[in-house]
Protein backbone atom coordinates (compact mmCIF):
# COMPACT_ATOMS: atom_id res chain seq x y z
CA UNK A 1 0.00 0.00 0.00
CA UNK A 2 1.22 3.49 -0.79
CA UNK A 3 1.65 6.14 1.83
CA UNK A 4 -0.65 9.09 1.99
CA UNK A 5 0.18 12.72 2.28
CA UNK A 6 -1.73 15.90 2.80
CA UNK A 7 -2.07 17.89 -0.43
CA UNK A 8 -3.08 21.16 1.12
CA UNK A 9 -2.85 22.73 4.50
CA UNK A 10 -6.05 23.40 6.40
CA UNK A 11 -7.35 26.80 5.34
CA UNK A 12 -6.85 29.56 7.89
CA UNK A 13 -10.05 30.39 9.65
CA UNK A 14 -11.19 33.95 8.94
CA UNK A 15 -14.09 35.81 10.46
CA UNK A 16 -16.41 35.02 7.57
CA UNK A 17 -15.65 31.32 7.93
CA UNK A 18 -16.82 31.17 11.50
CA UNK A 19 -19.58 28.60 11.89
CA UNK A 20 -23.08 29.95 11.67
CA UNK A 21 -25.98 28.38 13.49
CA UNK A 22 -26.17 24.72 12.55
CA UNK A 23 -28.85 24.19 10.01
CA UNK A 24 -30.19 24.23 6.54
CA UNK A 25 -27.91 25.39 3.77
CA UNK A 26 -28.79 28.57 1.90
CA UNK A 27 -30.80 28.01 -1.27
CA UNK A 28 -28.73 27.25 -4.34
CA UNK A 29 -29.38 26.82 -8.06
CA UNK A 30 -28.79 23.07 -7.72
CA UNK A 31 -31.70 22.79 -5.26
CA UNK A 32 -34.13 24.06 -7.85
CA UNK A 33 -35.99 22.58 -10.79
CA UNK A 34 -35.80 24.33 -14.15
CA UNK A 35 -39.12 26.08 -13.50
CA UNK A 36 -38.06 27.18 -10.02
CA UNK A 37 -34.83 28.65 -11.40
CA UNK A 38 -36.76 30.75 -13.89
CA UNK A 39 -39.04 31.97 -11.10
CA UNK A 40 -36.04 32.81 -8.95
CA UNK A 41 -34.37 35.01 -11.57
CA UNK A 42 -37.61 36.77 -12.52
CA UNK A 43 -38.18 37.48 -8.81
CA UNK A 44 -34.89 39.40 -8.99
CA UNK A 45 -36.22 41.41 -11.92
CA UNK A 46 -34.12 39.59 -14.48
CA UNK A 47 -35.32 37.88 -17.67
CA UNK A 48 -36.12 34.16 -17.29
CA UNK A 49 -33.40 33.12 -19.75
CA UNK A 50 -30.79 34.09 -17.16
CA UNK A 51 -31.70 30.84 -15.40
CA UNK A 52 -30.34 28.88 -18.32
CA UNK A 53 -27.23 31.05 -18.54
CA UNK A 54 -26.51 30.43 -14.85
CA UNK A 55 -27.14 26.71 -15.23
CA UNK A 56 -24.69 26.57 -18.12
CA UNK A 57 -22.03 28.32 -16.09
CA UNK A 58 -22.52 26.02 -13.11
CA UNK A 59 -23.25 22.60 -14.61
CA UNK A 60 -21.65 22.74 -18.05
CA UNK A 61 -18.74 25.16 -17.72
CA UNK A 62 -18.13 24.40 -14.03
CA UNK A 63 -17.24 28.08 -13.70
CA UNK A 64 -16.60 29.17 -10.14
CA UNK A 65 -15.69 32.78 -10.85
CA UNK A 66 -18.39 35.32 -11.73
CA UNK A 67 -15.82 37.21 -13.80
CA UNK A 68 -16.20 34.42 -16.38
CA UNK A 69 -19.92 35.07 -16.83
CA UNK A 70 -19.32 37.27 -19.84
CA UNK A 71 -22.84 36.80 -21.24
CA UNK A 72 -24.38 38.39 -18.14
CA UNK A 73 -24.10 42.16 -17.50
CA UNK A 74 -21.59 42.90 -14.79
CA UNK A 75 -24.10 44.91 -12.74
CA UNK A 76 -26.31 41.84 -12.12
CA UNK A 77 -23.63 39.14 -11.78
CA UNK A 78 -23.10 39.66 -8.08
CA UNK A 79 -26.82 39.87 -7.36
CA UNK A 80 -27.45 36.57 -9.16
CA UNK A 81 -24.43 34.91 -7.58
CA UNK A 82 -25.44 35.92 -4.07
CA UNK A 83 -29.00 34.78 -4.55
CA UNK A 84 -28.50 31.55 -6.48
CA UNK A 85 -24.90 30.45 -6.16
CA UNK A 86 -23.87 30.93 -2.52
CA UNK A 87 -20.63 29.17 -1.56
CA UNK A 88 -21.77 25.94 0.08
CA UNK A 89 -18.62 23.97 0.70
CA UNK A 90 -15.08 25.07 1.46
CA UNK A 91 -12.31 22.58 0.91
CA UNK A 92 -10.51 22.07 4.22
CA UNK A 93 -7.96 19.65 2.78
CA UNK A 94 -7.58 16.58 0.72
CA UNK A 95 -5.44 13.51 1.04
CA UNK A 96 -4.34 11.15 -1.70
CA UNK A 97 -3.60 7.48 -2.11
CA UNK A 98 -2.93 5.08 -4.99
CA UNK A 99 -0.46 7.55 -6.55
CA UNK A 100 -3.12 10.23 -6.63
CA UNK A 101 -5.84 8.12 -8.26
CA UNK A 102 -7.82 8.13 -5.01
CA UNK A 103 -8.46 11.47 -3.39
CA UNK A 104 -10.48 12.11 -0.26
CA UNK A 105 -11.73 15.64 0.29
CA UNK A 106 -12.89 17.15 3.57
CA UNK A 107 -15.48 19.92 3.16
CA UNK A 108 -16.63 22.52 5.64
CA UNK A 109 -20.25 23.52 5.04
CA UNK A 110 -21.81 26.94 5.69
CA UNK A 111 -22.52 26.16 9.36
CA UNK A 112 -19.19 24.53 10.14
CA UNK A 113 -20.44 20.98 9.57
CA UNK A 114 -17.79 18.68 8.08
CA UNK A 115 -18.39 16.05 5.38
CA UNK A 116 -16.16 13.97 3.15
CA UNK A 117 -16.26 12.80 -0.46
CA UNK A 118 -13.91 10.46 -2.31
CA UNK A 119 -12.84 10.57 -5.95
CA UNK A 120 -11.56 7.35 -7.51
CA UNK A 121 -10.03 7.19 -10.95
CA UNK A 122 -9.83 3.79 -12.59
CA UNK A 123 -7.29 3.78 -15.37
CA UNK A 124 -8.26 2.25 -18.69
CA UNK A 125 -6.23 -0.86 -18.16
CA UNK A 126 -7.93 -1.45 -14.84
CA UNK A 127 -11.41 -0.90 -16.26
CA UNK A 128 -10.66 -3.33 -19.05
CA UNK A 129 -9.29 -5.84 -16.57
CA UNK A 130 -12.48 -5.55 -14.50
CA UNK A 131 -14.62 -6.05 -17.61
CA UNK A 132 -12.63 -9.14 -18.59
CA UNK A 133 -13.22 -10.56 -15.15
CA UNK A 134 -16.92 -10.03 -15.66
CA UNK A 135 -16.86 -7.18 -13.21
CA UNK A 136 -19.57 -4.76 -12.31
CA UNK A 137 -18.76 -2.11 -14.90
CA UNK A 138 -21.35 -1.37 -17.57
CA UNK A 139 -19.04 0.98 -19.44
CA UNK A 140 -17.75 0.05 -22.85
CA UNK A 141 -14.29 -1.44 -22.56
CA UNK A 142 -11.62 1.18 -23.12
CA UNK A 143 -13.47 4.04 -21.43
CA UNK A 144 -12.07 5.09 -18.12
CA UNK A 145 -14.24 5.17 -15.05
CA UNK A 146 -14.12 8.01 -12.55
CA UNK A 147 -16.31 7.52 -9.52
CA UNK A 148 -17.20 10.12 -6.91
CA UNK A 149 -18.46 8.75 -3.61
CA UNK A 150 -20.67 11.41 -2.02
CA UNK A 151 -22.09 12.02 1.44
CA UNK A 152 -25.84 12.59 1.73
CA UNK A 153 -25.91 13.43 5.43
CA UNK A 154 -23.42 14.75 7.97
CA UNK A 155 -23.15 11.73 10.25
CA UNK A 156 -25.76 9.00 10.11
CA UNK A 157 -28.59 7.82 12.32
CA UNK A 158 -28.51 4.15 11.32
CA UNK A 159 -25.92 3.15 13.95
CA UNK A 160 -24.41 0.15 12.15
CA UNK A 161 -21.70 -0.91 14.65
CA UNK A 162 -18.98 -1.67 12.05
CA UNK A 163 -19.25 1.69 10.26
CA UNK A 164 -17.22 4.74 11.32
CA UNK A 165 -19.95 7.21 10.34
CA UNK A 166 -22.55 5.30 12.33
CA UNK A 167 -20.73 5.85 15.62
CA UNK A 168 -21.35 9.56 16.09
CA UNK A 169 -25.02 9.73 15.12
CA UNK A 170 -26.71 12.13 12.74
CA UNK A 171 -25.69 15.78 12.66
CA UNK A 172 -27.97 16.93 9.85
CA UNK A 173 -29.27 16.25 6.36
CA UNK A 174 -27.42 17.79 3.43
CA UNK A 175 -29.31 19.84 0.88
CA UNK A 176 -29.52 18.67 -2.73
CA UNK A 177 -27.04 21.36 -3.72
CA UNK A 178 -24.58 20.36 -0.98
CA UNK A 179 -24.59 16.86 -2.47
CA UNK A 180 -24.28 18.08 -6.08
CA UNK A 181 -21.50 20.46 -5.06
CA UNK A 182 -19.32 17.49 -4.03
CA UNK A 183 -19.61 16.16 -7.59
CA UNK A 184 -19.16 19.55 -9.27
CA UNK A 185 -16.06 20.28 -7.18
CA UNK A 186 -14.62 16.87 -8.14
CA UNK A 187 -15.47 17.50 -11.79
CA UNK A 188 -13.56 20.80 -11.59
CA UNK A 189 -10.47 19.07 -10.15
CA UNK A 190 -10.60 16.56 -13.01
CA UNK A 191 -11.19 19.09 -15.75
CA UNK A 192 -8.27 21.17 -14.52
CA UNK A 193 -6.03 18.13 -14.69
CA UNK A 194 -5.36 18.16 -10.94
CA UNK A 195 -5.83 14.39 -10.76
CA UNK A 196 -3.00 12.28 -12.25
CA UNK A 197 -3.92 10.89 -15.67
CA UNK A 198 -4.74 14.15 -17.42
CA UNK A 199 -8.03 16.01 -17.72
CA UNK A 200 -11.06 13.78 -17.25
CA UNK A 201 -14.75 13.62 -16.38
CA UNK A 202 -16.88 12.10 -13.66
CA UNK A 203 -18.63 9.00 -15.04
CA UNK A 204 -20.12 7.51 -11.85
CA UNK A 205 -21.55 8.78 -8.59
CA UNK A 206 -22.18 6.47 -5.66
CA UNK A 207 -24.16 7.52 -2.57
CA UNK A 208 -21.85 5.51 -0.36
CA UNK A 209 -20.24 8.25 1.67
CA UNK A 210 -21.56 9.48 5.00
CA UNK A 211 -25.24 9.07 5.71
CA UNK A 212 -28.27 7.03 4.74
CA UNK A 213 -29.45 8.49 1.41
CA UNK A 214 -33.02 7.23 1.67
CA UNK A 215 -33.38 8.92 5.08
CA UNK A 216 -32.80 12.22 3.23
CA UNK A 217 -35.12 11.32 0.39
CA UNK A 218 -36.10 14.70 -1.06
CA UNK A 219 -32.59 16.10 -1.24
CA UNK A 220 -31.13 12.87 -2.61
CA UNK A 221 -33.69 12.50 -5.41
CA UNK A 222 -33.27 16.21 -6.17
CA UNK A 223 -29.51 15.72 -6.38
CA UNK A 224 -29.94 12.69 -8.66
CA UNK A 225 -32.09 14.82 -10.97
CA UNK A 226 -29.42 17.52 -11.14
CA UNK A 227 -26.77 14.89 -11.88
CA UNK A 228 -28.79 13.28 -14.66
CA UNK A 229 -30.64 16.25 -16.17
CA UNK A 230 -29.17 16.98 -19.61
CA UNK A 231 -26.77 19.87 -20.00
CA UNK A 232 -27.14 22.78 -19.42
CA UNK A 233 -29.86 22.03 -16.84
CA UNK A 234 -27.81 19.41 -15.02
CA UNK A 235 -24.57 17.47 -15.30
CA UNK A 236 -25.96 15.18 -18.00
CA UNK A 237 -24.76 11.95 -16.40
CA UNK A 238 -26.29 8.59 -17.19
CA UNK A 239 -28.62 7.27 -14.47
CA UNK A 240 -26.91 3.91 -14.94
CA UNK A 241 -23.79 5.48 -13.53
CA UNK A 242 -25.50 6.59 -10.31
CA UNK A 243 -25.82 4.17 -7.39
CA UNK A 244 -27.91 4.82 -4.30
CA UNK A 245 -26.97 2.57 -1.38
CA UNK A 246 -29.40 1.89 1.47
CA UNK A 247 -29.65 -0.03 4.72
CA UNK A 248 -33.09 -1.14 3.48
CA UNK A 249 -35.68 1.53 4.28
CA UNK A 250 -38.46 -0.38 2.56
CA UNK A 251 -41.09 2.37 2.04
CA UNK A 252 -38.44 4.67 0.56
CA UNK A 253 -37.17 1.87 -1.71
CA UNK A 254 -40.72 1.43 -3.00
CA UNK A 255 -41.08 5.14 -3.55
CA UNK A 256 -37.74 5.33 -5.36
CA UNK A 257 -38.86 2.63 -7.79
CA UNK A 258 -41.71 4.88 -8.91
CA UNK A 259 -39.57 7.99 -9.20
CA UNK A 260 -38.67 7.35 -12.84
CA UNK A 261 -34.97 7.78 -12.13
CA UNK A 262 -33.67 4.27 -12.88
CA UNK A 263 -30.56 4.64 -10.77
CA UNK A 264 -28.78 1.52 -9.55
CA UNK A 265 -29.93 0.49 -6.07
CA UNK A 266 -27.54 -1.15 -3.64
CA UNK A 267 -28.85 -2.90 -0.55
CA UNK A 268 -26.50 -3.20 2.43
CA UNK A 269 -27.46 -6.66 3.61
CA UNK A 270 -24.40 -7.97 5.50
CA UNK A 271 -26.31 -10.99 6.85
CA UNK A 272 -28.95 -13.34 5.44
CA UNK A 273 -30.54 -14.06 8.82
CA UNK A 274 -32.53 -11.61 10.93
CA UNK A 275 -30.79 -12.57 14.13
CA UNK A 276 -27.36 -11.41 12.98
CA UNK A 277 -28.67 -8.58 10.80
CA UNK A 278 -30.51 -7.10 13.79
CA UNK A 279 -27.07 -6.55 15.28
CA UNK A 280 -25.13 -5.46 12.17
CA UNK A 281 -27.83 -3.24 10.63
CA UNK A 282 -30.10 -2.19 13.53
CA UNK A 283 -32.89 -0.91 11.26
CA UNK A 284 -33.47 -4.59 10.49
CA UNK A 285 -35.62 -4.77 13.59
CA UNK A 286 -38.06 -2.55 11.66
CA UNK A 287 -37.79 -4.04 8.15
CA UNK A 288 -36.69 -7.67 8.06
CA UNK A 289 -34.33 -9.36 5.59
CA UNK A 290 -37.24 -10.82 3.61
CA UNK A 291 -39.00 -7.47 3.32
CA UNK A 292 -35.83 -5.68 2.21
CA UNK A 293 -35.13 -8.36 -0.41
CA UNK A 294 -38.73 -8.26 -1.67
CA UNK A 295 -38.48 -4.48 -2.06
CA UNK A 296 -35.15 -4.88 -3.88
CA UNK A 297 -36.65 -7.43 -6.27
CA UNK A 298 -39.64 -5.12 -6.87
CA UNK A 299 -37.21 -2.29 -7.65
CA UNK A 300 -35.64 -4.48 -10.32
CA UNK A 301 -39.06 -5.35 -11.75
CA UNK A 302 -40.05 -1.69 -12.04
CA UNK A 303 -36.77 -0.23 -13.27
CA UNK A 304 -34.97 -3.11 -14.97
CA UNK A 305 -31.86 -2.14 -13.03
CA UNK A 306 -29.94 -5.00 -11.47
CA UNK A 307 -29.66 -4.77 -7.69
CA UNK A 308 -26.32 -4.80 -5.87
CA UNK A 309 -26.18 -6.58 -2.54
CA UNK A 310 -23.45 -5.15 -0.30
CA UNK A 311 -21.89 -7.61 2.11
CA UNK A 312 -18.97 -6.58 4.33
CA UNK A 313 -17.10 -9.79 5.14
CA UNK A 314 -16.38 -9.82 8.87
CA UNK A 315 -14.15 -12.56 10.21
CA UNK A 316 -16.08 -15.33 12.00
CA UNK A 317 -19.18 -13.13 12.21
CA UNK A 318 -20.99 -13.32 8.86
CA UNK A 319 -18.51 -15.12 6.56
CA UNK A 320 -19.46 -18.78 7.16
CA UNK A 321 -20.24 -21.05 4.20
CA UNK A 322 -23.70 -21.75 5.59
CA UNK A 323 -24.50 -18.05 5.52
CA UNK A 324 -23.31 -17.78 1.90
CA UNK A 325 -25.53 -20.75 1.15
CA UNK A 326 -28.49 -19.19 2.90
CA UNK A 327 -27.93 -15.92 1.04
CA UNK A 328 -27.75 -17.77 -2.28
CA UNK A 329 -31.02 -19.54 -1.54
CA UNK A 330 -32.79 -16.32 -0.51
CA UNK A 331 -31.72 -14.57 -3.70
CA UNK A 332 -32.49 -17.35 -6.17
CA UNK A 333 -35.87 -17.92 -4.48
CA UNK A 334 -36.72 -14.49 -5.87
CA UNK A 335 -35.59 -15.29 -9.40
CA UNK A 336 -32.45 -15.23 -11.48
CA UNK A 337 -30.43 -12.47 -13.13
CA UNK A 338 -31.89 -9.69 -11.01
CA UNK A 339 -29.08 -9.27 -8.54
CA UNK A 340 -25.37 -9.40 -8.01
CA UNK A 341 -23.47 -9.57 -4.76
CA UNK A 342 -20.60 -7.27 -3.81
CA UNK A 343 -18.69 -8.74 -0.90
CA UNK A 344 -16.17 -6.30 0.53
CA UNK A 345 -13.54 -7.16 3.10
CA UNK A 346 -14.38 -5.21 6.25
CA UNK A 347 -12.41 -1.98 6.64
CA UNK A 348 -11.92 -2.10 10.39
CA UNK A 349 -12.69 1.22 12.07
CA UNK A 350 -10.46 2.42 14.92
CA UNK A 351 -11.07 0.37 18.04
CA UNK A 352 -13.21 -2.15 16.18
CA UNK A 353 -13.54 -5.59 17.75
CA UNK A 354 -14.02 -6.99 14.24
CA UNK A 355 -11.56 -7.65 11.41
CA UNK A 356 -11.77 -8.59 7.76
CA UNK A 357 -12.35 -12.20 6.77
CA UNK A 358 -9.37 -14.27 5.72
CA UNK A 359 -8.65 -14.70 2.01
CA UNK A 360 -9.68 -18.33 2.30
CA UNK A 361 -13.02 -17.47 3.88
CA UNK A 362 -13.59 -14.79 1.24
CA UNK A 363 -12.89 -17.27 -1.57
CA UNK A 364 -15.16 -19.85 -0.04
CA UNK A 365 -17.94 -17.30 0.37
CA UNK A 366 -17.65 -16.23 -3.27
CA UNK A 367 -17.55 -19.81 -4.55
CA UNK A 368 -20.57 -20.83 -2.53
CA UNK A 369 -22.59 -17.94 -3.95
CA UNK A 370 -21.34 -18.61 -7.49
CA UNK A 371 -22.47 -22.22 -7.14
CA UNK A 372 -26.00 -20.83 -6.77
CA UNK A 373 -25.53 -19.12 -10.14
CA UNK A 374 -25.22 -15.67 -8.62
CA UNK A 375 -22.93 -12.98 -10.04
CA UNK A 376 -20.34 -11.96 -7.46
CA UNK A 377 -17.71 -9.21 -7.59
CA UNK A 378 -15.40 -8.66 -4.65
CA UNK A 379 -15.10 -4.92 -4.16
CA UNK A 380 -11.64 -3.42 -3.89
CA UNK A 381 -10.63 -1.45 -0.85
CA UNK A 382 -9.46 1.73 -2.52
CA UNK A 383 -8.44 4.51 -0.25
CA UNK A 384 -8.12 2.30 2.78
CA UNK A 385 -4.89 3.85 3.98
CA UNK A 386 -6.38 7.35 3.92
CA UNK A 387 -9.50 6.24 5.80
CA UNK A 388 -11.31 6.87 2.56
CA UNK A 389 -12.65 3.37 2.04
CA UNK A 390 -16.25 2.25 2.61
CA UNK A 391 -17.41 2.89 6.13
CA UNK A 392 -14.33 4.83 7.15
CA UNK A 393 -15.55 8.35 6.51
CA UNK A 394 -15.69 10.15 9.83
CA UNK A 395 -14.86 13.78 8.99
CA UNK A 396 -12.77 14.75 11.94
CA UNK A 397 -10.48 17.71 11.65
CA UNK A 398 -7.44 16.19 13.31
N1 LIG B 1 -26.16 4.22 4.46
C1 LIG B 1 -25.87 3.62 3.19
C2 LIG B 1 -24.53 4.09 2.62
C3 LIG B 1 -23.42 3.69 3.54
S1 LIG B 1 -21.78 3.44 2.96
C4 LIG B 1 -25.85 2.12 3.33
O1 LIG B 1 -25.73 1.65 4.44
O2 LIG B 1 -25.96 1.43 2.33
C5 LIG B 1 -21.79 2.25 1.72
C6 LIG B 1 -21.47 0.82 2.13
O3 LIG B 1 -20.31 0.68 2.95
C7 LIG B 1 -22.60 0.18 2.88
O4 LIG B 1 -22.87 -1.08 2.31
C8 LIG B 1 -22.02 0.01 4.26
O5 LIG B 1 -22.64 -1.01 4.98
C9 LIG B 1 -20.58 -0.29 3.93
N2 LIG B 1 -19.68 -0.18 5.08
C10 LIG B 1 -19.85 0.59 6.17
N3 LIG B 1 -18.82 0.42 7.02
C11 LIG B 1 -17.98 -0.45 6.45
C12 LIG B 1 -16.74 -1.01 6.84
N4 LIG B 1 -16.16 -0.66 7.98
N5 LIG B 1 -16.15 -1.90 6.00
C13 LIG B 1 -16.73 -2.21 4.82
N6 LIG B 1 -17.88 -1.71 4.39
C14 LIG B 1 -18.52 -0.84 5.20
Q: In short, what is this structure?
A:
With 398 residues, this protein is α/β, with parallel strands linked by helices.
What is this structure's SSE topology?
Elements: E1 5-6, H1 34-43, H2 49-60, H3 74-84, E2 89-97, E3 102-109, E4 114-122, H4 124-132, E5 145-149, E6 153-155, E7 170-173, H5 176-191, E8 204-207, H6 217-228, E9 242-246, H7 250-257, E10 264-268, H8 274-280, H9 289-303, E11 307-313, H10 321-332, E12 339-345, H11 359-371, E13 375-376
Parallel strand pairs: 5-8, 8-9, 9-10, 10-11, 11-12, 12-13
Antiparallel strand pairs: 1-2, 2-3, 3-4, 4-5, 6-7
Helix pairs in contact: 1-2, 5-6, 7-9, 10-11
The chain binds S-adenosyl-L-homocysteine.
S-adenosyl-L-homocysteine binds at residues 158, 160, 162-163, 208, 212, 245-247, 268, 310, 312, 344, 346-347, 349, 390-391.
Describe what you observe in this structure.
It is a single chain. This protein is of the alpha/beta class. Helices cover 31% and strands 18% of the residues. It contains 11 helices and 13 strands. The strands form 2 sheets. The chain has an 11-stranded mixed sheet. The chain has a two-stranded antiparallel sheet with strand order 6-7. The longest helix has 16 residues, at 176-191. The chain starts with a strand and ends in a 22-residue tail after the last strand. The model is unreliable at 1-20, 125-129 and 132-141 (pLDDT under 50). The protein binds S-adenosyl-L-homocysteine.
Termini separation (Å)? 22 Å
User: Biggest sheet, strands in spatial order?
Assistant: 1-2-3-4-5-8-9-10-11-12-13
- Rg of Cα set: 21 Å
Number of helices: 11
Proportion of residues in helical segments: 25-40%
Bound molecules: S-adenosyl-L-homocysteine
- Point out poorly predicted stretches: 1-20, 125-129, 132-141
Averaged pLDDT: 89
Number of strands: 13
Reading the helices and strands in chain order gives EHHHEEEHEEEHEHEHEHHEHEHE
| SS-derived structural category | alpha/beta
Percent strand equals 15-25%
The biggest beta sheet reads: 11 strands, mixed
Overall outline: globular
Amino acid sequence: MGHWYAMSEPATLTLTDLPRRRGKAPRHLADLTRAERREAVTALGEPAYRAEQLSRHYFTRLADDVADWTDIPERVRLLLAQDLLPALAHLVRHVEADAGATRKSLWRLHDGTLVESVLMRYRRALARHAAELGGETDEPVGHERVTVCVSSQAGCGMACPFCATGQAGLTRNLSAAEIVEQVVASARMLRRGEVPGGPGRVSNVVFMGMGEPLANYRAVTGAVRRLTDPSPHGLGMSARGVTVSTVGLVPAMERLADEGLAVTLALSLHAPDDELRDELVPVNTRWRVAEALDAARAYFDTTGRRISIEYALIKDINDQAWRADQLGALLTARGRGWVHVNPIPLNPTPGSKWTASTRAAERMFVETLSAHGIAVTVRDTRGREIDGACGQLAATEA
